[in-house]
Amino acid sequence: MNRWWCVFIVWLSVVPAAVIAGPDVFDLRCELLTEPLGIDVPQPRLGWKIKAEERGVLQTAYHILVASSPEKLAQDIGDLWDSGKTESHNSIAVYYDGKALKSDTKVFWKVKVYTNVGESAWSAPASWRVGLLYYKDWNRRWIGFDGYFNSDDEEAGYLSARYFRKEISMTKEVKEATAYIMGLGLYELYIDGNKVGDQVLAPGLTDYTKNVKYNVFDVTDLLKGNKHALGVVLGNGRYYAVRQEKPYKVKNFGFPKVQMQIRVTYTDGSKQTIHTDDTWKGTTEGPIISNNEYDGEIYDARKELQGWATVGYDDRAWKKATYVQEPGGNYEAQLNRNMKVMQDLQPVSITSKGGKYIIDYGQNFSGWVKMRVQGESGTKVTLRFAESLNEDGTLFRDNLRAAKATDVYILKGGAVEEWEPRFTYHGFRYVEVEGYPGDLDVEKITGRLVYDEMETVGSFTSSNTLLNQIHKNAWWGIASNYKGIPVDCPQRNERQAWLGDRPGSAYGENFLFDNANFYIKWLDDIRLSQKEDGAIPDVAPAFWRYYSDNMTWPGTYLIVADMLYQQTGDVRILKRHYPAMKKWMQYMRALYMDGDGIIIKDSYGDWCAPPATIEEGRGKSADVKRPNPLISTAYYYHLLEVMARFCEYTGDSIDRAEFEEAAVKMREDFNRRFYNPSGYYGNNTLTENILAMYFGLVEDSEKEKLAGRIIAIIEKENNGHLSTGLVGTQWIMRTLTDMGRSDLAYKLATNTSYPSWGYMIEHGATTIWELWNGNTAHPRMNSQNHVMMLGDLLVWYYENLAGIKSAANGFQRIVMQPELIEGLDHVAARYQSLYGEITSNWTKRKSTFEWTISIPPNTRAELYLPARKGSSITESNRNIKDNSRMQILSEDGDKVKIAIGSGTYQFKTKL
User: Fold this and answer.
1) Of 373, 443, 494, 391, nearest in space to 786 by CA
2) What is the DSSP letter of 456?
């Protein structure tokens, strides 16, 4: 008897928001039903995961029911949509195709799946809430205080938190209540003194003149009884700009403001909407004296407003809330999750120095600390944050630039007080605590890691401990820089989403984190930042007005979209952004292509390429631009090919032909201008040659010669090291592997001398540095927690070392071809794809290769096993030629290629 079951998923945005439900007997997860999401996508993407013990399970059809009530769904009535039995292998991208959905309603659905081994029962029901679909649904006003008060310090740029409150009465028994809130720049919502939700630093960052994200909460259980008090605290975030001395550079949106409504349905069917208006009252005289992303938070506990969000609080001294101008951007449901405290860290040491405590958490990360303290009223405790220490044991803070990175807590006195900031975060490993009364021990000061709530979906270990440590450092660095947008660093006065940092690293990040919705949101940030003429900025959202017009930074827009399509199989990503991408490509061609077919505009060159020696870069700033038309032209060619692929996926044959024709012409022009008959490109740098090789610009007849140059640069000129900056590092590991030199890629990955990832670790790094020479460079531009120099390293870990790579439709077809490299004896990796978990666990011994893999249902895989003949390969101690479910596709030299279906397999070959 076949034993299999279905895990139920609903993707409620352009890509999955990961909703899983299923029969309890199978101990399946259900995520969406506990999440207060409002979905404003008219045709959300539905999907499910099949789990089965049988091998080779393939879906042949599905039947979806979507209903307006759980009662109808239980009766198998799909009054909103009944798909009927639909012949299809699609289980990750079925778009809702029923009746038009209405704002602020709940939708219930289930699926039955048919496969080649049988059909499932109906899944357990799942649901999603439809958000507010139309601007008119809000139909009320924003409130706030537009102006400075005595509690603010306009000259210093310090703005105190704004507190707003209102008491309400519920006239009947509440059946359901849903809160919709837009609190800018940051907010916390309270009902009867209880914070609503566990999110922090919400909502997600956007350019508020373009779009504003709203959050949704089920507050039914908080509105039991008659009288209630509502409270909202507003922090500044990026709405009230952190630095305003350069208005030509930094966008400032105004003073904090909020619009909220609570939609209530009573048990008798009647409805009521509670909303923000001028009957609310507010004050700036609360305990949060200042809150600032760069400088920190100042909190005076003596000014606490005890019970301010509870019924009966005396608010006679508070001011009447005023109506204020709306931000200007479209209102959108936030489909990517908010930030959250994701992990707590205890100090590894506390030392006392000069009357101050130095806390070491043993790990560079971003977030803040939660402190317990007891002392006299008015005692001021100051916490300063840093990534490293000076030789004398004091904080090294020169690399923070103008960021003060300081929190101040003033005690109210009496009992033990517990405090953590609300509207700031820091990048740090060390904290200096000054003014703490009494003895400070590890139980009294907890580090809190904060990043966008998302699941870790990948893991990697190997027989090489350095590879494992680099992977760990990468995880901490990536997590630390997820702040609603992919910021470059979490510590200094920057923290911007530079496009150039992410083309290859975003790809690798997807193997670690369930970040699809996060990057979908960022693509929208980029699209909305585009100028009418087509220009795309280097930073998006464009909080800094940097439109330098180069290829490598804005080109990330296309590269990340390509990655998301490859990893999720959602073609709507490409359709949504294709017009903006095409417009940008035309813009760059019109302005910057010379008469010889070369794109002459490049702003940064191979940014942050390493100095030749560690001493050569000592004390020097890496903030040096070296524009290079070879780089900009190579990227334009590559992006022409990317656009042609997009046209293929979306069925645009006319544009595809134009892009392909332009690429052929540019390839000729590129080689005419930059190729040297000696076998190299441009100035013969490693990055220039790698781009020509990986992008396919080199003629086939010249590939061997170019490969020789690349190898010679690394092995001879660089003594076995890389010399690439941000641009070249995005492609180097895959280029070497494609050239058949995975051994050389492995050497780069495992070096411990300068420049290398191992060198960073040898010198104390627990994340990834911004610079290869981060221990000697000038501190002005020297972050110790960046991701840009990861390049394509993580892609190489998962796709090449582990052999987990999508070949089609978001891993519906998988290619598994692990690189066997001398000195690496074992790799174990897992990746949670949209179809289910893919695992690869191989061990190489002197004469044998053993490989355990898992392939999820409704997918197929092509495996490359190290063997000369299929007859030398066994699976579960049985020769694969005796297994009718395994098809030998080729026996070519030292590799046997076979095709398999889903299941868990244990292969063994003789080497």
Assistant:
1) 494
2) B
For residue 897, the SS3 value is strand
At the top level of CATH, which class does the domain 340-452 belong to? mainly beta
Q: With contact defined as beta carbons under 8 Å apart, do 655 and 647 qualify?
A: yes
Q: Which tokens belong to 422?
A: 């609300």
pLDDT of 29 strictly over 80: no
Q: Round the CA-based radius of gyration of the chain to a whole number and report it.
A: 29
Q: Max Cα separation, the chain?
A: 87
What is the three-class DSSP state of 826? Answer: strand
Fold of 138-336: Jelly Rolls (2.60.120)
Which CATH number is 458-799's, of 1.50.10.10, 3.40.50.2300, 3.40.30.10, 2.60.120.200?
1.50.10.10
- Give the start-to-end residue ranges of the domains of the chain: 4-130, 138-336, 340-452, 458-799, 803-910
Q: Are 748 and 722 in contact (CB under 8 A)?
A: yes
Contact call for residues 493 and 242 (beta carbons, < 8 A) = yes
Domain 4-130 has CATH 1.10.10.60: no
Share of the chain above pLDDT 90, in %: 89
Tens-place pLDDT, residues 652-705? 999 999 999 999 999 999 999 999 999 999 999 999 999 999 999 999 999 999
Where in 221-256 does DSSP place strands (E)? 227-235
Nearest partner of 519 among 476, 479, 486, judged by Cα = 486
pTM flag (> 0.85): yes
Quick: pLDDT tens for 757-804: 999 999 999 999 999 999 999 999 999 999 999 999 999 999 999 999
DSSP assignment string, 343-369: EEE--SEEEEETTEEEEEEEEEEEEEE
Rounded to whole angstroms, the Cα distance separating 264 from 271 reads: 6
Q: For domain 803-910, give the CATH superfamily.
A: Maltose phosphorylase, domain 3 (2.60.420.10)
Residue 320 phi/psi, 5-degree rounding, is -70, 130
pLDDT value of position 22: 31
The DSSP symbol for 200 reads B
Tokens of 766: 């627990």
Whether the domain at 138-336 and the domain at 340-452 fall into the same CATH topology: yes
